[in-house]
C-alpha cells in the first residue's frame, strides 16, 4: 500500500505557533510594567541630585569593593546632571514599553532592556542586596531588575515558522503535554537525548537554560535564608512590620498582622521559607510537579511582594500618592508572575496531518514508467511484468 501525507491547508500552514498568543500577552504585560516604571521615574523628587546621590551612596555602603568603585565613578556624573539623567531614564523605559507593544519592534525593545536592567540592578538596587547582610526574597532579593533581564531573554521572539512565539512559549519541546520550557524533562537529560537527532538542538539548550534560570532564582534565594541575620528571631517580623509604615490602612494592617504573627519566630520562618523556595525551584524539573511549582512560585512571589515589599512602596503616600511615593518599581511580585506564566506548560499539541492511504493500483500505475525502466527494456516481457502486477492488485 502506498501512503502519502495529506496536504495541509495554506491557512493552517501560515497560522501562528501554538504559543504565539500567550507569548504576545506576556510581552504586553511586561510592557505594562515598563510603562509603570517610566511613570514612577517621572516623580518630581527624582529630578534632583539628592535622589541620585542618596540612592548611589546607600548602595555603595554595601560590599563588594568593585561596586563601591563603580558607584564612585557614576555618582558625581549623574548628580551633576540630575534633571537630564532622570529624563533619559524615564524616556528609555518609556521607549522599551512602547517597543514591546509591537511585534516588529519587540526584539529591539527586549535587547535594549537587558543592559539597562543590569545597570539598574547594579546601581539602583545595589545588585539586589545580594552582597549585603540579611538579603532575602521576602525583602526583594535578588532584585526586580535582574528578573526583568531574565524575563526579557525568556520572551525573546523566535525566528522562522513560529512567528510571535518565544523560546519559552510555544508548546514546549515537541509540543507535548509537558509544554512550557523543556516539557518538565530534566534539562541535562533533554539535551543529551535530543541533541544527536534534533536539528533544533540549540533551541532546546536555550529552553533548558530558561528552566535552570528559574531553579537558580528560587534555590539561590533559599540559600540566602541561611544568612546569620535572617536567622535572628526578630529579623523577619520587624522587617514585615516596618514595611507597612506609611502605607494605606489595608496594607499597613496586613503588615502589622503578619509581622505580629511571625513575631520572634524568625528562625522557623527562615527554615520554612528556605525549604518552600527550594521546592518551588526544583519542582519544575518533574512533569508531575511543574504546574504546582509554578503556581506556588506565583503565590509566594506575590505574597513577598505585598507583605515584604509593599509593592515596592508605590502606595507609601496613599493610594493617590503614587507620583510622590519615591518608588521606582512595584517590587518583585509582578515580574515573578510573568516569569512563571512564561514557563507554564501549554496544552497538548494538536496531532499533525495523518497519512492517508492511496489506492495501491493507482500508486503502481504512477510508478509504472519506473517499473518499466527497471524491467530493462520496452519488450513484451517488460510490459507483461507491469500488466501482471496491476492485474494481481485488481
Number of helical regions:
16
How much strand content do the residues show? under 5%
* Separation, N- and C-terminal Cα atoms: 13 Å
Order of helices and strands: EHHHHHHHHHHHHHHEHH
Major sheet size, sense and barrel closure: 2 strands, antiparallel
Rg from Cα: 29 Å
Average pLDDT, to the nearest integer?
A: 79
Number of domains: 2
Structure class? mainly alpha
Instruction: Let me know the number of strands.
Output: 2
Low-confidence stretches: 1-18, 171-188, 371-376
Shape: globular
Helix share bin: 55-70%
Strand order of the largest sheet: 1-2
Give me some keywords for this one.
single chain; 394 residues; mainly alpha; 2 domains; two-stranded antiparallel sheet; 16 helices; 61% helix
Explain the layout of strands and helices.
Layout: E1 2-5, H1 10-14, H2 20-41, H3 49-60, H4 65-80, H5 82-100, H6 103-124, H7 144-154, H8 187-194, H9 201-224, H10 235-243, H11 249-262, H12 266-283, H13 290-308, H14 333-343, E2 355-358, H15 360-374, H16 380-393
Antiparallel strand pairs: 1-2
Helix pairs in contact: 2-5, 2-14, 3-4, 5-6, 6-7, 7-14, 8-9, 9-12, 10-11, 12-13, 13-14, 15-16
What would your notes on this structure say?
With 394 residues, this protein is mainly alpha-helical. The protein has 2 domains: 338 residues, no CATH class; 34 residues, no CATH class. The protein is built from 16 helices and 2 strands. A two-stranded antiparallel ribbon has the order 1-2.
Amino acid at each position: 500500500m502506498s501512503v502519502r501525507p495529506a496536504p495541509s491547508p495554506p491557512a493552517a500552514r501560515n497560522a501562528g505557533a501554538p504559543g504565539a498568543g500567550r507569548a504576545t500577552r506576556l510581552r504586553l504585560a511586561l510592557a505594562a510594567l515598563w510603562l509603570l516604571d517610566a511613570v514612577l521615574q517621572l516623580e518630581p523628587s527624582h529630578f534632583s541630585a539628592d535622589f541620585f546621590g542618596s540612592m548611589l551612596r546607600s548602595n555603595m555602603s554595601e560590599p563588594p569593593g568593585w561596586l563601591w568603585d563603580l558607584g564612585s565613578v557614576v555618582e558625581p556624573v549623574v548628580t551633576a546632571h540630575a534633571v537630564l539623567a532622570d529624563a533619559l531614564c524615564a524616556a528609555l523605559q518609556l521607549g522599551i514599553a512602547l517597543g514591546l507593544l509591537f511585534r516588529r519592534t519587540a526584539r529591539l525593545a527586549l535587547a535594549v532592556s537587558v543592559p539597562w536592567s543590569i545597570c539598574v540592578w547594579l546601581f539602583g538596587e545595589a545588585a539586589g542586596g545580594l552582597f549585603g547582610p540579611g538579603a532575602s526574597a521576602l525583602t526583594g532579593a535578588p532584585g526586580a531588575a535582574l528578573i526583568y533581564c531574565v524575563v526579557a531573554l525568556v520572551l525573546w521572539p523566535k525566528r522562522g515558522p513560529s512567528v510571535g512565539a518565544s523560546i519559552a512559549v510555544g508548546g514546549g519541546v515537541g509540543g507535548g503535554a509537558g509544554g512550557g520550557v523543556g516539557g518538565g524533562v530534566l534539562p541535562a537529560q533533554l539535551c543529551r537525548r535530543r541533541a544527536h537527532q534534533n536539528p533544533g538542538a540549540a533551541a532546546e539548550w536555550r529552553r533548558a537554560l530558561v528552566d535552570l534560570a528559574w531553579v537558580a532564582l528560587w534555590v539561590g534565594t533559599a540559600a540566602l535564608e541561611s544568612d546569620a541575620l535572617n536567622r535572628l528571631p526578630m529579623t523577619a517580623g520587624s522587617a514585615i512590620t516596618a514595611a507597612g509604615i506609611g502605607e494605606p490602612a489595608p496594607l499597613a494592617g496586613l503588615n502589622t498582622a503578619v509581622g505580629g504573627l511571625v513575631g520572634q519566630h524568625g528562625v522557623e520562618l527562615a527554615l520554612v521559607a528556605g525549604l518552600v523556595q527550594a521546592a518551588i525551584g526544583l519542582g519544575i524539573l518533574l512533569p508531575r510537579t511543574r504546574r504546582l511549582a509554578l503556581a506556588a512560585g506565583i503565590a509566594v512571589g506575590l505574597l513577598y511582594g505585598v507583605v515584604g515589599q509593599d509593592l515596592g512602596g508605590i502606595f507609601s503616600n496613599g493610594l493617590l500618592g503614587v507620583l510622590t511615593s519615591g518608588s521606582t518599581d512595584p517590587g518583585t511580585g509582578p515580574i515573578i508572575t510573568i516569569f512563571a506564566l512564561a514557563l507554564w506548560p501549554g496544552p497538548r499539541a494538536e496531532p499533525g496531518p495523518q497519512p492517508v492511504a492511496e489506492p495501491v493500483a493507482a500508486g503502481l500505475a504512477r510508478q509504472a514508467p519506473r517499473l518499466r525502466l527497471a524491467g530493462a527494456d520496452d519488450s513484451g516481457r517488460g510490459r507483461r511484468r507491469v500488466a501482471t502486477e496491476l492485474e494481481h492488485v485488481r
